[in-house]
Design a protein that fits this description.
Layout lengths: L1 H10 L1 H7 L8 E9 L3 H12 L4 E5 L25 H14 L10 H4 L9 E2 L4 E2 L4 H14 L3 E4 L9 E4 L2 E6 L5 E9 L5 H5 L4 E2 L33 E3 L2 E6 L27 E2 L5 E2 L13 H8 L9 E4 L3 E4 L21 H24 L5 H7 L3 E3 L20 E2 L7 H4 L8 E5 L3 E3 L3 E4 L5 E4 L2 E3 L5 E4 L13 E2 L8 H7 L2 H21 L8 H10 L13
Parallel strand pairs: 1-2, 1-8, 2-5, 8-24
Antiparallel strand pairs: 3-4, 6-7, 7-8, 9-17, 10-11, 12-16, 13-16, 14-15, 18-23, 19-22, 20-21
Helix pairs in contact: 1-2, 3-13, 4-6, 4-13, 13-14
Length: 556
């Protein structure tokens, strides 16, 4: 029997990946490549590792795979779709295949949905891709990737961040999870939104905004004058509990701290929220729940915005198939819980749970307020009452998304730091491993009182590059003297404002695959990740379908 097992393991590379995952004892695991995280980048990295003939283990703190892509963000922020190749494009191709089947259209006909969204067709028959989808469809695609490639995923495994990472000679030898399991490998990939493995491995990273002067940027740091998305107070709204009386105190969610000068760096990060999947189909709608700690006073500021005449509440109820939405923040007071996440990146697991719960309570309270409070304009409330949470999504979580939108947490300080100068084509990017093209998009970071005595938001920036840009290999690897066998495709090395463009799910999938290709190459030639010859890496990236540059358009 043992000989047969060994023969089967040696006879096929895919089966080998599964066999190698078998621990010699119940708490010790090893593979060529260990991936920490359950995001879309973790999945593409794992698939690439197996298809390149390496053994791999995915160690996921999440039970459900896919991160935001399966957690409600179904209205994909794509930018220029021609930059999306490899397994990332394969993901959107499989979504297209799903919706090409009439059986996928349960709550509406395909013809009723049409073919709209994101400035382009949602269902691109010519390129056989679809960019707008339901959460459970995305999760199934990721699970199919895992099962087809016989990848072992250990779920609900949380890194021991205090003493779990073992390093020797600037290489990670292993890490331990809180359950007591140990994972040893030749290469490691941190594919989390938070960068926990990266931080525990002792590499340099950054949290917050740099001053503009640090990287010679224009759009970093405090940006009190930026008004790029309309997520600001267009009217003069009184910030005090009793209008005109500062002594009464500030309304909920307004910071008493004075605003710093423009371009000043700080440790603040852009706001989080949940991307909600709602339905207006009577048979697939769950009424918005009332949180136990609901307090309508927390939404008085929104009431004043309505009183001033604002009526854009439904502006980001973006439609996805089957009469559902991917609902995002919109306007001066919405689902973004501004200023309530600053400590999240470095927080303990317990504290993060508290922050996530506070965001959930805030957002549920917001939905309940708009649906029920008499302060809300009648026409908005009546339409809001036709919506609810989608009954057929997130069954094990009260139909609520399992993934908070971590728009930004830690960012690696690696071999190369991507800045707005790279995004805006003001510099030459070395060693492309993928491309980005979306706007440098930062949601609001703080809500404050202006010198004139009115409430205002700060941090809303959206600057579009004129053309897609390359992302350097140096931005997904640490400095050589810090760690030689770690790759970081999500918390990449970039400035705050450049990360606002990179932080899109298609790009994370691209970089996850590229990180795995680099890890495989490093194993093959027995080199540190920093010492891989780029031309050899580039050859493999192109072979695997990655887009590293676009043809230059001739100018007259």
């Amino acid at each position: 029997m043992i000989k047969l097992f060994l023969f089967l393991c040696l006879s096929t590379g895919i089966l080998l990946s599964s066999c190698a995952s078998q621990p010699k004892n119940p708490n010790e695991y090893s593979a060529d490549i260990i991936i920490y995280g359950g995001t879309s980048a973790a999945v593409t990295a794992a698939v690439e590792a197996v298809q390149s003939g390496k053994t791999v283990l995915v160690v996921s703190p999440d039970t459900h795979l896919g991160g935001l892509s399966s957690g409600g963000l179904g209205y994909t922020d794509t930018g220029n779709k021609s930059t999306i190749g490899g397994l990332s494009r394969e993901f959107y191709h499989r979504v297209w295949q799903h919706y090409s089947d009439s059986a996928a259209w349960k709550w509406q006909k395909h013809s009723e949905y049409g073919n709209k969204g994101q400035g382009t067709v949602a269902m691109d028959g010519e390129n056989r891709t679809m960019w707008i989808f339901e959460p459970h469809v995305a999760e199934q695609v990721f699970e199919d990737f895992i099962s087809e490639n016989k990848i072992t995923v250990l779920r609900n495994e949380w890194l021991d961040r205090s003493s779990g990472v073992i390093k020797k000679d600037e290489k990670i030898e292993s890490f331990k999870t809180l359950s007591g399991k140990t994972f040893s490998g030749k290469m490691f990939i941190d594919a989390t939104y938070e960068g926990d493995l990266m931080a525990a491995a002792g590499v340099s990273y950054r949290v917050g905004r740099e001053a503009c002067s640090e990287y010679n940027e224009t759009w970093n740091g405090v940006q009190a004058d930026a008004r790029h998305h309309g997520h600001f107070f267009k009217d003069k709204i009184d910030p005090y509990k009793i209008p005109g009386k500062p002594e009464s105190g500030l309304l909920y969610g307004i910071s008493p701290d004075p605003i710093a000068a423009n371009c000043t760096g700080d440790n603040k990060i852009q706001a989080y929220c949940f991307r909600l999947c709602m339905s207006n189909h009577p048979d697939n709608r769950v009424p918005f729940p009332k949180p136990e700690n609901y307090n309508p006073e927390n939404y008085e500021l929104l009431g004043r915005v309505f009183d001033a005449g604002w009526r854009e509440w439904f502006g980001k109820f973006d439609l996805i198939p089957n009469r559902k939405t991917d609902t995002n923040n919109h306007g001066p007071f919405s689902s973004d819980f501004i200023g309530m996440n600053y400590d999240y990146p470095e927080a303990s697991y317990e504290r993060r749970k508290e922050i996530i719960k506070a965001h959930e309570d805030y957002q549920k309270g917001l939905l309940y307020f708009v649906s029920n409070d008499p302060h809300v304009p009648k026409e908005i409330q009546q339409e809001m009452q036709t919506w609810g949470l989608a009954k057929d999504e997130f069954h094990d979580n009260g139909n609520w998304s399992r993934q908070i939108y971590v728009r930004e947490a830690r960012r690696l300080l690696g071999v190369y730091v991507t800045t707005e100068n790279d995004v805006l084509a003001k510099s030459e990017v070395p060693g492309s491993v993928g491309m980005g093209s979306y706007a440098m998009d930062s949601h609001n970071i703080q809500r404050y009182v202006t010198s004139e005595g009115f409430v205002q938001n700060e941090g809303d920036v959206g600057v579009h590059p004129e053309a897609p840009y390359a992302i350097s290999y140096g931005s997904i690897i640490p400095k050589r003297d810090e760690c030689q066998n770690l790759l970081v495709p999500v918390c990449v090395s970039s400035s705050h404002i450049a990360y606002g463009s990179i932080r899109m799910e298609p790009v994370f999938m691209i970089l996850g695959q590229s990180a795995a290709i680099a890890a495989c190459k490093a194993i093959d030639i027995d080199h540190a990740v920093q010492d891989i010859p780029y031309e050899a890496l580039k050859e493999k990236l192109l072979e695997r379908g990655q887009v590293l540059a676009l043809p230059k358009v001739a100018t007259k």
